[in-house]
Amino acid sequence: MDYSIFAVAIFLIAVLVFGGVFLIRPRRPGVTDEKPSAEVTDATTAEAGTAVAEPEEREEPAGAPATATAEAPPVEAPAAPELETPPPSAGRLVRLRARLARSQSTFGQGLLSLLSADKLDDDAWDEIEDTLITADVGVTAASQIVDNLRTKVKVQGGRTPEEVRGMLREELIAQIDPRLDRAVRTDPHGDRPAVLMIVGVNGTGKTTTTGKLGRVLVGDGRSVVLGAADTFRAAAADQLETWGSRVGAPVVRKDEGADPASVAFDAVARGMDEGADTVIIDTAGRLHTKTGLMDELGKVKRVVEKKSQVDEVLLVLDATTGQNGLRQARVFAEAVNITGIVLTKLDGTAKGGIIIQVQRELGVPVKLVGLGEGPDDLAPFDAEAFVDAILGED
């Protein structure tokens, strides 16, 4: 037997057994000895990059510009300010009567006290006359009132408080003249609006009166256009725009220094275009000593009349200025046809007698009175309500 062949066979079997153990040993999951190919590596990297680059969903900050994937919500325009609803003109003076009574108590109560004295001799009547003159009634009117009262006292005899009050009330109403037409003409003429010009010197409250009058008319259901023809003061136009914006009344204005007549003309034209009922034109505060400025006021009126008639020229007077205010009124009356008086600041003075004097001097009625600084403190003037207020009538 050949043992060498047998030994070789055993050796070969041993090599095969041990080699097979290493070749078929188990591998850990996910582990490979092979290197990934370049294609697999590039694809995996690309997928990973895409995943990283993909942005997360998030809310855009408010006000950010819209992107291609999401539209920004539309921006709403700011709401227009709510317009005020002024009270109507009817009953305004009655509502403000308590304020008027406080301001005029010195005038009315002083007269009642003097007339109720036990003895009415010449000295007493002189004192009554002085009280009337001090209240700006005027010398002529004061003398006439005293003469009429003396006659009534002699005829009637008795002088109870009720009788004295009745006599004085009757005389004051007669002097104020309730027969005068105090209506402010604001009715349009077909397709043309009524045109009102507001005139007066600086400081009397012209622009404020223009704004308040616009409120009165809006409260009465009228449509109004305001003309800022005081081009010497930009603040005047700004102030008028504030008044107009509260009640929805448009304001026509131009740059400071522009021709006032052109502003007035354009205001009337706009009123006609918009079908407005009334156009109110605020003019510059004319110094009554300046002839050139007074001539310019006449020019404004003439230019406006090429477009439409001027229905009212209202002169604004400060009730506290007394005789100086009366001199102003005379100069304005010479420059332009005044149709009515607006007496402002009547709440701050005991000199309500200026109403009697200015009407006698100019022959035109007081149509409106200002009784405070509030937006609705402008009221149509009523002779009986005025006298009742200063005499403390209920």
Automatic annotation (TrEMBL):
SMART domains tied to this protein: AAA, SRP54, SRP54_N
Q: Which GO terms describe its cellular component?
A: cytoplasm; plasma membrane
InterPro entries in the cross-refs: AAA+_ATPase, P-loop_NTPase, Signal_recog_particl_SRP54_hlx, SR_rcpt_FtsY, SRP/SRP_N, SRP54_GTPase_dom, SRP54_N_sf
What the protein does? Answer: Involved in targeting and insertion of nascent membrane proteins into the cytoplasmic membrane. Acts as a receptor for the complex formed by the signal recognition particle (SRP) and the ribosome-nascent chain (RNC).
Subunit details = Part of the signal recognition particle protein translocation system, which is composed of SRP and FtsY.
Identify this protein by name.
Signal recognition particle receptor FtsY
Q: Which of this chain's residues are annotated to bind GTP?
A: 200-207, 282-286, 344-347
Q: Which reaction does it catalyse?
A: GTP + H2O = GDP + phosphate + H(+)
Q: What would be the name of the gene that encodes this protein?
A: ftsY
Matching Gene3D superfamilies, A to Z? P-loop containing nucleotide triphosphate hydrolases, Signal recognition particle SRP54, nucleotide-binding domain
User: According to Swiss-Prot or TrEMBL, what is its membrane topology?
Assistant: Peripheral membrane protein
Keywords for this entry?
A: Cell membrane, Cytoplasm, GTP-binding, Hydrolase, Membrane, Nucleotide-binding, Receptor, Transmembrane, Transmembrane helix
Establish whether keyword Transmembrane is in the entry: yes
